[in-house]
Amino acid sequence: MQDSSAMIDPHRPWILDRRDDPAAMNWIQTLFNPMGKSSKLHFSRAWTFMFMGRLLLYIVPTCVVAVLAVAGVQTAMLNKPVNLGPVPVPTLLVPFVVFVLVTEYTSFVAHLRRLAEAGRSTLLAGIVLIPLILAMLAFAGGVAGGIAQHEAQVAKVALEKEIAADPAKAAAAKAEENTKAPQRRAPPAEPQTARQMAIGGGLGMAIPIWMLASFGAMLWTLLYVARMPNGGVGEFHTGSHIPENEGLRRPYETA
């Protein structure tokens, strides 16, 4: 027989630790106040919200735009780049990028509070910032590479103009080209600006590294942080449980 009045949450009878009571959760504190502590379930709810928010804000707009494009609807406006700082972002993904940037901070805060509640070193919360730090370093390296590539192209164009201006050099270059086997050339692409090549190189390096590092951080969160017992005492496992000093029986079960 179950005594519903003794349940922590009648709609979630599997919650056995009163510290995990959903009604007692303060979302603002959990996500934005790094000075407090969060129980196991409160942390899991916050992390799930951040994860699902990122997932839906990326998948839903891209799928909708893809369907509209197949249906013949003009989607150029939705794909038009919008500058968020130095980085151009497609209009449909602006909410996703903004949400990612905000949740980088809220994720750090949530991990900080959870580690503090479980009696672990709060320095470990810095692990969730590693993907962002690596992405920023990769972006800087990619930007430098893109600028170098653009400078090489500019130097090549300048050399070609110099050769074209000198009849002797132009004739020698044409003769050398005629001696080579004919190659099928694609139509020349529109030249990119230095900014376009720099941003393209930066994003090309940053995004894959950020995704891989984020996957590693996610595994650490799910397998370690989200499974730490409340108060740091007890076994590591998923879900809520009764603290050791409250006995092994569920509070709403009777003999």
UniProtKB/TrEMBL annotation:
Domain of life of the native organism: Bacteria
Biased composition (Low complexity): 180-193
Keyword Transmembrane: yes
Keywords, sorted A to Z: Membrane, Transmembrane, Transmembrane helix
Membrane-traversing stretches: 55-77, 89-110, 122-147, 207-226
Region (Disordered): 170-193
Record's protein name: DUF805 domain-containing protein
The species this protein was found in: Hyphomonas oceanitis SCH89
High-level lineage: Bacteria, Pseudomonadati, Pseudomonadota, Alphaproteobacteria, Hyphomonadales
